[in-house]
Write a structure and sequence with these properties.
Length: 240
């Protein structure tokens, strides 16, 4: 059967919100997700992402950040920053954060394609897709990150300074993924109506700030802050 996949996405939020989400340790997160899963009737996307699925999301993000750090991330032809985005001087390697994962699940379980209103110093990317066929979890996870990052080759970046207005909404997901302010990520996916999935990723510290550089440019890893160290293969600053 031919499957039709479609997606919608909303750009990452730009400003700190009113209050932060409660901190949860690993056991509390598992208990929280188990309760939510039972309450929802065991929907395919209302369970915790597997470790392999978390690794896939993290690997995709860090792969794009590595391409950027090494000066190998293609820009839209003719865009102002040139054919490739400039090298990043201090791009951190992202790490998975269970508390961000928990806050992403809390928001995703509302099953609304709207941004959170209770975040503090945390960015948010939203994604929604629907299909006429069976769910394929790995394909959906892969498509989510690709849909966001493809904004750069599709719309292009003319400046390393975060644009405002419509230009921001064209690239806001991608710039959230490529910000060198952000060091941690946590994501969730839940089923909505039949054939529809909502994805949420939370980023901390927040990366998208108007009139500020998306990331510091310069020789790859030349400004990695202590205690991080440059991984020369990826070009990313790795924290212990």
């Amino acid at each position: 059967m031919t499957q039709l996949y479609q997606f919608l996405s909303i750009s990452a939020i730009l400003i700190s919100q009113i209050s932060g989400a409660p901190r949860l340790d690993g056991n509390q997160l598992s208990q929280f997700l188990a309760v939510q899963n039972r309450a929802s009737g065991g929907n395919i996307w209302n369970d915790q992402l597997s470790q392999a699925e978390k690794n896939m999301i993290l690997q995709q993000h860090n792969s794009y950040r590595s391409q950027c750090a090494l000066g190998k991330f293609a820009n839209k032809p003719g865009a102002g920053l040139g054919p490739y985005l400039p090298r990043a001087a201090k791009m951190p390697e992202l790490k998975w954060d269970k508390n961000l994962e928990a806050s992403a699940y809390r928001h995703a379980m509302k099953k609304e394609f709207k941004h959170s209103t209770d975040l503090k110093n945390t960015g948010e990317n939203l994604y929604m897709m629907w299909t006429t066929g069976a769910f394929n979890r790995q394909n959906i996870i892969k498509d989510m990150s690709q849909a966001w990052i493809n904004e750069v080759p599709q719309y292009g970046l003319d400046s390393i300074i975060l644009p405002s207005g419509q230009k921001f909404y064209n690239v806001g997901h991608a710039t959230a993924m490529l910000s060198d302010r952000t060091t941690r990520i946590g994501c969730a996916m839940v089923g909505m109506a039949p054939g529809k999935v909502l994805g949420v990723c939370h980023y901390s510290p927040i990366g998208n700030i108007f009139n500020s550089a998306i990331y510091a440019t310069g020789a790859t890893g030349s400004q990695c802050p202590a205690p991080s160290k440059l991984n020369p293969q990826t070009g990313l600053c790795v924290y212990p």
